[in-house]
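Hi V.,

You were right to ask for the full record rather than a summary. Here it is.
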Amino acid sequence: MFPDRILADGDGLGPPTVSSILSLHFSWVALFLLLAAGFYVAGVVTLRKRGDRWPVLRTVLFIVPGLGSIAAVTVSGVEAYDDSLLSIHMIQHMVLSMVAPIFLALGAPVTLALRTLPRKPRAVLLAVIHSRVARVLTFPLVAYGLFVVTPFALYFTSLYQVTMRHELVHEATHLHFIAVGCLFFWPLLGVDPLPGRWPYPARALLMFLSTPFHTVLGLTVMQSKTLIGGDWYPSLKLPWVDPFDDQQLAGGILWAGGEIVSVTMLAVLVVQWMKHAEKEARRIDRMLDREEARQAAAGTIPEGSDTERIAEEQPTDEHAHRPAV
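Predicted structure:
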């Protein structure tokens, strides 16, 4: 499957090493990632030329941990082992479905596109965002269902063997991981304008409900008495790894990794919630200040307002200058 295998003793794939994992292999995925980074940077440059600001942090998050994490598991030596070791595949799975989508969402690429695209492409993008299909797919419960069902349908049916034996299906699975992750995390953590976005309490609840999902999946993999992928891994006859031991490790990676990412993202969501509440409070304060200033300028102060109460508490000249008894 991988164009440039790393061989041991000239007769098979050797055990993963630092050098083999860090080796880079250019592919269509690398070209796609470079194009995505280029379009994003071009959008940022366009905004700056107009005198508009774009947060540097968003650019860093989108390119480095967002696109960078995809590159780390698809154009490196990780790809050489993802159909030979289930544990490596699970690392790849988690990065593509959980890590990369989170940082891509925080980079707000849709917002950037809406602010920089010409009128017609922007109108097309808006039509797609507000289409019925987009409303259904980005509805949190639908996205949550896809996010939870996908790995069970993949690993506990014959579909996984198909992905191992056919390159096109294997690559399509990678795209599916990224797409499902984006559909789930984008409405929860992203700042892009999406239809039907839930309020923060509901988002936090859904994120909390996703936390035990990887625990169940990881334990199921670890306790399985049969090999995931059937006879695929034994047929490779790799002398340096036992498929059952590797499957145990793969389940542990799902369990621990899923818990860490889910809890971390729940904390990020809570922080976003708090910042949103502070911003909303400041907005309401400014609105009330403007309304009170307008009414004061018109000579009318509403009963019970802060200005009226302060005026009542101030002593009149008669009382202010009355000598103490």
